[in-house]
Design a protein that fits this description.
The protein is an alpha+beta fold and 183 residues long. It has a single domain, classed as Alpha-Beta Complex (Peptide Deformylase). It is 23% helix and 31% strand. The chain contains 3 helices and 9 strands. It has helices spanning 27-40, 133-145, 156-170, and strands spanning 5-6, 45-47, 57-61, 76-87, 91-98, 101-111, 113-119, 125-131, 180-181. The strands form 3 sheets. The chain has a 5-stranded antiparallel beta sheet, sandwiched between helices. Strands 1-9 form a two-stranded parallel sheet. A two-stranded antiparallel sheet has the order 5-6. A hairpin with a 5-residue loop joins strand 7 (113-119) and strand 8 (125-131). The protein is globular. The two termini are 22 Å apart.
Length: 183
């Protein structure tokens, strides 16, 4: 089932998400619905707060970038209760967008590599290091669990220039080709 994606201005996007356990109701259905929602919106990652649930979980599938990097064709993950335990000092800038902030793309600096501990959909624990685009997408989705958006990371001048666009998104004065839930 395709879920509505909560957009900028919704309070759930600013809450710190809560951990879950393996008894979370209908977890496998939620994961399936989140993937379906993400694919429908042409996204590569989707965090639970983006579908209105303040829980520490996100899904990622980078197959859309297989032409750029064949290794990304098989990068599909569910991360439950993730914690980034290490970030490289070296930062890299790249353009990002977000399904919760439709129509806005900005350059964001992020650590080039990270180490993350998480549980998969079977509640098996993993500790893995990611570099480059994988690290960027994980950090972007992880930020959602912390109540942060990529627009918080742009320069103050750029943020000021985006203010009216963000206000319009919060008021529902934006268009997207997928189902959204405005504030």
């Amino acid at each position: 089932m395709i879920l509505p994606i909560y957009t900028y201005g919704n309070a759930v996007l600013r809450k710190q998400a809560e951990p879950i356990d393996k008894n979370y109701p209908n977890l496998s259905m939620l994961i399936e619905n989140m993937y379906e929602t993400m694919y429908n919106a042409d996204g590569v990652g989707l965090a639970a707060p983006q579908v209105g649930l303040p829980i520490r979980m996100f899904v990622i599938d980078l197959i859309a970038f297989k032409e750029d990097d064949p290794e990304l064709a098989t990068f599909k993950k569910v991360m439950i209760n993730p914690t980034i335990t290490n970030r490289s000092e070296n930062e890299v800038s790249a353009e990002e967008g977000c399904l919760s902030v439709p129509g806005i793309h900005e350059s964001v600096n992020r650590p080039e590599s990270i180490v993350v501990q998480y549980l998969d959909e079977h509640f098996e624990e993993h500790t893995e290091e990611y570099v480059g685009f994988k690290a960027r997408v994980i950090q972007h989705e992880y930020d959602h669990l912390e109540g942060n958006l990529f627009t918080d990371k742009v320069s103050p001048i750029r943020r000021q220039l985006l203010k009216s666009k963000l206000t319009n998104i919060a008021k529902g004065k934006t268009s997207s080709r997928y189902k959204v839930k405005t504030a």
